[in-house]
Amino acid sequence: MTTKQILATPALRGADQLFTLRNANDMRLTISERGAALVSWWAPDRYGKVADVLLGYRDAHGYADNSAYFGAVIGRWANRIAQGRFMLDGAPVQAAVNDRGNHLHGGDDGFHKARWTLSASGAGVSLRLSSPDGDGGFPGQLDVQVHYRLDDEGRLTIDFEAVSDAPTPVNLTAHPYFNLNGGSADVGDHMLQIDADFYLETDPGGIPVGVAAVGGTPFDFRQPAAIGPRLGWPDAQIRLAGGFDHCYCIQPHAMGRAGPLREVARVYDPGSGRRLQVSTTEPGLQFYSGNWLDGVQGRAGRPYARHDGFCLEAHAYPDQLNGQCASAVILRPGQVYRQTTVYRLSLQS
């Protein structure tokens, strides 16, 4: 392992501390203490030209607000909870509501805005956060650790751990937006493959209403297919979300529980030759095609447009707290929440 760590200040203007991981092939990954966010990931294309494959803000002020959740760790609850309400051990709980009457990504003041404690850790970097009882409406003090490691094969391994002093839901994820062409165009030409036979249909607020088979629909990415043409398919779910913003059931036999680490998705950009592989222990994979990016001010000196980036977020099922597998996402004292997701960047010949 030859990964190096470098404290970096010039990459992002502002007061937040940054840390850069660099592997033997000079691939560089920059992480901010604000939101434990992945800020930049510089990687070469097939011609050796290096570009940043992550979307992000031009300075620290953007990450302090981060309404788009660029690169951040999401918690305590990734994705949505219907009306922010759920039952916990027979008692009603009301979490923060911030998205069309529902809870989304920890609320307006979730983990994505917090300043985490950042430190070097072996071949990577660790970030810690203590979320007090009542934070976002959730019970119990939750202590969270996130570990980032970048190896010489281009694998970014993200390990999550959390403990609580009271029963509480925990559902964490990383929220990087990728554009494998480095921002020279939108992601319409990207070839996506997801190993899932089923996905969750949603209502207008993004709350799941049922499990549907992907076959015969624009959601069928069991074989590689370009993202762009699927956005124009005459499909009610695509129209409802303005594109893709749906959870795929990638561990169908796990009943909403974490399973073994396995590869579940691949994305290839024909223009640059860059390839992204996603592995995770989680039961769900949210594919988001950047439907609400239009007008978001990024670091490229121009606002982002719709579909300028995509997300593949590994986590529990949306609104699982109000489903049959609610017990699988409740962390109790004495237990340790663990999750691993791996993003691997490479070149495809």
TrEMBL record:
Entry-linked CDD domains: galactose_mutarotase_like (cd09019)
Catalysed reactions listed for this entry: alpha-D-glucose = beta-D-glucose
Enzyme class: isomerase
Keywords: Carbohydrate metabolism, Isomerase
Pathway(s) the chain acts in: Carbohydrate metabolism; hexose metabolism
InterPro entries cross-referenced by the UniProt entry: Aldose_1-epimerase, Aldose_1/G6P_1-epimerase, Gal_mutarotase_sf_dom, Galactose_mutarotase-like, GH-type_carb-bd
Keyword Membrane annotated: no
Domain of life: Bacteria
Keyword field contains rRNA-binding: no
Family: Belongs to the aldose epimerase family.
NCBIfam families per the UniProt record, alphabetical: PRK11055.1 (NF008277)
The protein's name: Aldose 1-epimerase
Organism: Massilia frigida
